Amino acid sequence: MNDDEWKGNIRALIYPIQFSKQPAAEVERVLDVLDYPGSPWDKDGLKEAIRLALAQKGPLAGLIPQEHPEAVIRAYLEAVLKELGRR
Fold this sequence. Notes:
Blueprint: H1 3-14, H2 27-34, H3 43-55, H4 70-86
Helix pairs in contact: 1-3, 3-4
């Protein structure tokens, strides 16, 4: 997966929580939306994108305009990855 691909996947995961007060509490809602029948989102691809993102030293919070600090975005992505492992 190249940089554009994983970044696109991460943007898709951050977008629905950009205005949320508690992003980690939104994991189920976000994944339910991505999990509808016929969804173009591939769970394995999302997991790979999250792993690649979390391995980055640079900031992820700046991938889309939003106010959450880096630690909040990383914790949210870790929670998404964990939930994807259960589905």
